[in-house]
Structures are given as structure tokens and as C-alpha cells.
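step 4 of 6: structure.
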Amino acid sequence: MQNTTPNEIKPEMTFKKSRIKTSAGDKIISVITYFIYALFAFVCVYPFYYVIINSFSANNLSERGKVLLYPMQIHFKNYVSVFTLPGILDAAKVSVYRTVIGTVLTVIVAAFLGFMFTRNTLWRRKLWYRFVTVTMYINAGIIPWFLTMKLLGLTNNFWGYIFPMIIQPFYIVLCKTYCESVPQALQEAAEIDGAGTLRVFFSVMLPVIKPIMATIAVFAAVNQWNSFQDTLLLMSDEKMYTLQFRLYQYLTSASSLKALVSNSTSSTAMMASLASAATATSIRMTVTVVVVFPIMCVYPFFQKYFTKGIMIGAVKG
Amino acid sequence: MELNSSPKKQASYASLRNINPRKLRSYKEFLLILPFLILVALFSYFPLFGWIYAFHDYKPPFPITNDTWVGLKWFITIFDNPVRLKNVIRVLRNTFIMSGISLLFSWFPMVFAVFLNEIRCKPFRKFVQTVTTLPNFISWVLVYAIAFSLFSTNGAVNSVLQQIGATTEAIPFLTQTDGIWFKMWLWLTWKNAGWAAIMYLAAISGIDEQMIEAAKVDGATRMQIIWHITIPSLLPTYFVIVMLNLANFLSNGMEQYYVFQNAFTQDYVEVLDLYVYNMSMSGTGMYPLATVVSILKSLVSVVLLFVTNTASKLIRGEGFI
């Protein structure tokens, strides 16, 4: 494990520089490869592009699937009407809170436990490490889990989003692996100076293991933001709905959405042109953009962390 | 830290009042992690006690008592009741087909990575890698939202098909059952393939450059290098992926199928995980029966995990757990 510190992993290094000679067959393969990968890229990018341009194009056109290549009759009324939908601001708040609180707790706990499981002094270290990591393979099923949550009073409770997610064995394994690659002398020096366990963790280890914490933070945040199933299982109170859950509702219950649309626009519909009057399609697309936007913003900057994460994970295997 | 060579000896010297400081420290450290161990016990181990509901005639909100004990009744009813048995068989069929297709095409990310690595233009390669990984980071709800806007009857695809005259009637892609399993696999691949390929790209970067140079000197073409060097070097990674796929054969997860299911397609996309959910949460409230199904699923999964891990140990010399 020691020889695979995350710093050494460079996926970009795969390019092999050498051009001895290329045969005609090789050239044909090149052309085909470029074409196919352009197609793959298109398939992955276009859906996002399509939804985004439709969210600010004329609603009567987007409803019939006429906005395909570029935005038409640009207007931003959809965003106004989406943010006036009942419950959407609450949902946004819940989503943001759970992402922030959940991520901070998950990362700190993963770092702390990862660090503690490297301490030889910890009583029954191996046993507790197993105790935590075995849960990766244990799954009681949704009903026992739901009943437990109910018993603990975590249904229809914001903390139901947080507590079950705090301990993530996989992140703890990642942290432990990383801590093991840090020279022991660092901790020993601090201990000789009289630092206690917590002091060693906060003052010595925490600054050193920042890279792995960043990686985990990105993963945890995306997980929290994307989480859908726990709302479905635990929350019946509308105040606890997340953006993902609201979006799902808008997608599946066309009738209730129509009611919402006519409600929210009834006062303005008279004056609004067909192009900007909210439709079920426009609401759906705009909410989709609102929900996907944070991820698309975060993703390009943190891509290296994502990549790092899967590498360390793969090494651990 | 290892200086005190034998703590046991030291402890015997120490009087009862005077506990060995090293021991004291190790207990203190245990106390520091204790709260988190309790969290693990609460959320991961405690629910296992819920399995007893499978042996009771549980009707919420009434608690279970000795009187509600029914033994293996629920286990037997699965096979007794012909309608239920038919349902279970249908759900198993869906699960097996979905997992089977995934397994059958599990080489796709590897091939994707191999040929992506052949692209010489670095910006283009990075671009492809970045955008094909993006779908992995959006939720299934968002995937469905995007699928909905593209493939619904008034979505982009139908609009284009009608414009070029390929069809006059809108095609209900999301509600028709033709090729539904393959479509589900396509969405899964759209979401995951780019991400899965990263691991292979890392493995490719680990291939010894000298091997490839030597092959080039011997006049190997690019296809020959791929076939005789790159692919064989990736096989160990691929093998682990296949084993993991096998271990998770019964666990497709419910989210994808939950968001994509509708009245028309439900019979074809209801996999085991979703079946358990649908059975327990959609009104009928058959908690015990759903628990029975998840217990059986867990047992089979554990067996699969051990079998594949042992197979991996035998073939590769190391397991993946």
C-alpha cells in the first residue's frame, strides 16, 4: 500500500510518445476511433445541453421539442416561476443543509476513525476495524432499516439524512490507507513533546491528510446531494422533501404539476405570451437544470479528486 | 511506541492502583472511538434484529409478541401461493436478465479505455474522458429527468424523427416494452461506463513502456500491441470486476428501476430490490413477506460473495474482500 500514495497516480500519463511508422490500417483505425469517441462525447454532453437551452427558450417551442441546437427566443421567466413553486425553496434548503452538514461530519469522522485505526495503542484495534468495515457487506434490508429509523425517531426528521450517513466504511478505509503512508516519526515526535491523541490528530495529522479529505468531501457531497432513496423511505412530511424528490414528483405526477402551473400563472397568464407561460415541460426542464447545476459547476474543478478517489479505491480493491 | 517491549510484564509489576499508562492510553483511545462504534452498531447491526419480523404475523402498528410467532409460515407462503410464486419468478427473471446483460457487456468499459488511450490528441482525449464521466455524478432521478425530456412523446428524439419523416406517430420510448431490458442497460452504461473506464486507464498507464517499445521494434501494428500487450495486462482488473458483478448478481439496486418504472413497464423492470420496496411500501404493508425476500436475498448474496472470493483466491492468489 505504501508505494501507492495518491500523489503518484497520474492517469494522464497513459499517452505513449513514439511515432515509428503508421500503416494505412492504423490510420483507418485512428479515424474510426476519433469518430466513435466524438459520438460518445456527444451522447454524454448533448442531453445536458438540450435541457439547459430549453430551460430558457420559448416555452411553446420547447414543449413540442423544437429547440434542438440553440436557444430560441431567450427568456428567463421559467426560473422565476420555478422559484415561486410552493415548497421548492424548502426543498432547496433541505438539500443544501444536508449536503453541507452531512459532508462536514462524514469527512471529519472518516478522517478521525481512519487515523485512530492506524494507532497501535488503540485497544483491540483490529477487532474494531473489522467491526466497522464488515458493514460494507451487511445489509439488513429496507424494512428492518426503516423500522429502526422509526424507533430512533429519525423518520420525518432532518437528522435522518445525516446520522445514518456519517459512518462510511469505504471512506474510513481510504483514510486509513492514506494515514499509513504518512511517516510514523511525525506522530512520534509530537508525542514525545507531550501531545495527546486528539492533539496529534488535530495538529499533526489533519494538515497532512488534507488531500484525501478533499477527495472524500467531494464524493460525500455528491452523494448527499443526489440522495433520493432515503427521502422516499423516511420522509412523508413535505417540509423534509429534497430537491431530488421534488423533481421526481414533477416528473411523475403530471396532473398535480398542471394544477401548480395554472395556479402560479393564473394571475399573470393573461398578460404573458405563449412563449413565457409556464408549462409542465418548462417547469420540469428548469427544475432539472436547477438540480443538476451545482454538480456541473463542481465537477470540472474537482475531477482530479474524483479520479484520485477511484484510483485509491481500486488499489484497495 | 514499541519501546515497552512487554506490556504484560509491566502490568504485573504495577500495583493495582497504579495502572500501566500505556494500557490507560489504549482505553482512552477506545473511549474516543466508542461513540462512533455505537453509531455503527445502531445503523448497521441493530437493524439485523428486524429479521425476526419475518417469523411473526406483524401488522403495524401492533408490536410483535409471542402470540404473533408464526415460524416459517411466510417462507412457505412464497412457494405455496401460486400468484405470489409467479410474481417471484417474474421478478427473478428480470433480475437475472438485467444482471446477465451487465455481465455480458462488462468488457465494454475496458474496450472503451483501451481505444480512448489510442487517441493521440491529448486535449480531445481529456475532453472525452471528462464528459463521459459526468453522468456518473448525477442521480437516477436526474437521469430520468433527462431521459424524459429527450424521449417522451414530445421530446427531442421524437421531434427529430418526425421532422425527417422516419415516423409519423410519436414513439413512446419510455412506456413501450420493446427492448426494455436493453434500454435499461443502455441507461446504466450511459451513466457508468466512463467512470468504470478510469480504472482501466490507470492500469494501462502502469504497463511497462519497454514492452511496447520492444513490440514496436519487432514491427507490431497498433492492433497487435492492443491485442497482445494492452488487453492481457488489463485482464486481472477485468477479472475482479467480473467477480464483483457476480457477487452482486441479485443486487441491482432499486433506484434506477424505481424511477424508470411505470404502469406499462413495471412487469419488466421490477427487480428484486424494487420488488421488496414495492411490496412493503405501496399500501399492501406486507412487512413480513418483504423481510423474508430480503433475508433470502442476503443469504444468497453472502454465499455468492464467498464463492467468488474463493474463486478469486484460487485463480489470482488473492481475494477482493
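step 5 of 6: annotate
 - The two ends of chain B are 30 Å apart (CA to CA).
 - Chain B is about 65% helix and 0% strand.
step 6 of 6: archive
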